[in-house]
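hey so i finally got around to running the thing on that chain from the lab meeting. sorry it took forever, my laptop kept dying and i had to restart like 3 times. anyway pasting the input first so we r on the same page abt which one it is
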Amino acid sequence: MRLDRYLFFIRLVKSRTLAQGLIEAGNVRIDGKRAAKASEEVRAGTVIALPLYGRVRVLRVLALPNRRGPAIEARTCYEELGETTDSANVSQQGASD
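ok and heres what got predicted. didnt touch it at all, straight out
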C-alpha cells in the first residue's frame, strides 16, 4: 500500500494531499530511511516515523486497512512505539522526588 494512502486511511492526516506534502518535505522515515516518494510501499511490520502536532510519532504497521473507516478501526492497524513526551516528563519528575 502507498505510504500517503496508509497515513490517510489510519486517520493521521486529513487528506492524501497533506500526507504527500509531509512526505515530499522529507519529514517521514520508513524503517529508518527517509521516504523519497509518497508512493513508497508500506507492509505489515514496517516502522514509520513522522512529526505531527509538535511531536515525533513512531508507528509499527500491524495491518493494511481497506478503507478510511472510523477511528477505532484505524487504531487497530498500527501501534505507537516509544513514550510520548508528556508521559516521559511525568515519569522523570516522579523519579527525582
